[in-house]
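Lay summary. Proteins are chains of building blocks that fold into shapes, and those shapes determine what they do. In this project we predict the shape from the chain. Here is one chain we studied, written as its sequence of building blocks.
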Amino acid sequence: YDANTDFSGRVFQIRFDDKGEQVTYIKALSGTLKVRDVLRYGEGDASDKINQIRLYSGPKYEQVGEALAGQIFGVTGLSEAKVGDGVGCLKQSYHPTLIPALQVKVLYKDNIHPKDMLK
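And here is the predicted shape, written in a compact code that computers can read:
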């Protein structure tokens, strides 16, 4: 990780804290992010100002003034972010599609009505 380049990262989780404030969790891939920086995110031109940067340890957190490349942290202030969005210089979003790992088929005799199989 290089903290001396422009900031880039990826949103990997979004939650709400006890006060109902949205916390966006980001993995920083490069650069440095500071409180009050305007951060661009998503594939569109969405941008918001960072209000807080939080470093979490379990349910507790510490407010810090900046986050460095390689850190995982939460921020407040991003109103339209989605999981998988690239932030900063990383413009590509990653939204995987889920494929079922298991498929099931019930085999039963022809003389049994399908509704009776549900009992």
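What the prediction tells us: Strands lie at 8-16, 22-30, 32-34, 38-41, 46-49, 52-57, 60-64, 66-68, 72-76, 86-88.
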